[in-house]
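[scheduler] slot 2 assigned
[scheduler] job type: sequence-to-structure, two independent chains
[scheduler] chain ordering preserved from manifest
[runner] begin chain α
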Amino acid sequence: MSKKIYLYVDGAARGNPGPAGIGVVLLGSDKKRIKDFYKYIGEATNNIAEYNALVYGLQEAIILGVKEIIINLDSELVAKQLKGEYRVKNTGIKPLFEQAVHLMSGFEKIEINHINREENKDADKLANKAINLSNLRGQVG
């Protein structure tokens, strides 16, 4: 296992809040895909979906024994909150932010990059796939 990975995460919500999904892509130091996954997370805002994607991605990296992580996300808000440039005021986001910061303490080296949407297409596709597949399953009541 590569001790350094590139993590791409994205969250999507249709309606904001609305049906939401997350997409996570992990690439090795050689930029080859190690793993990817998507998950429907129910009703959420876009920012909550973004943070859920980050938390899942960080957990996966820890499970894989990663020591160095380069986090790439297209949410300027999340990137700036993680870097300490923006305060976290939203009470719905605060626990997810705290969880992400706690998980980040498990790495020896972290880099956080705010990237444009074009560079995050794979994670975005997975987040939207999660929402699309949830619609196919129908409502369970």
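[runner] end chain α
[runner] begin chain β
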Amino acid sequence: MKLTKLILLLFSCLLFNSCWPPREPEEITTRYIPITVTRAELNKITLQDPKPTVKNEKIYLKDQYIFVNDRRDGFHIIDNSDPANPKKLKYLKALGSTDVAIRNDILYINQARDLVALKINTSNNSIQLLKRIENVFPALKSPDGFEAPADNDKIVIDWKEK
């Protein structure tokens, strides 16, 4: 009888061992580091001379123009009036940009968390910012699903592996 009680007592201790004392949860971390820019850097959209493509992503066609997104950096503007000989006209530098849509000659750009409406004139290298709506899109998460710590002046435009 004493042996049975002793075994039950030991078994009970083993059962409740995982409940007490409470363990600290393990901290799960990401394998990526956020690439951030300030709000001022993000707001600076410029029209530059053509440059080589680095990471082509989406392509948008409008009339004789082709807009090719260079992943999270900007857009190559290509004149395709002669499809046998397309010509790079300009590069629209817009950090964090991923997509563009055009309606009535207004470019709507998904730029990091913002939606930006602008008009461009490649002949005189001018950009007219019509409107910027901040924080329309969710914060960019790392490829393994983590968000960067919140910082009012820093905006995540990409992630790189540690």
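[runner] end chain β
[qc] chain β: The CA atoms of residues 34 and 159 lie 4 Å apart.
[scheduler] slot 2 released
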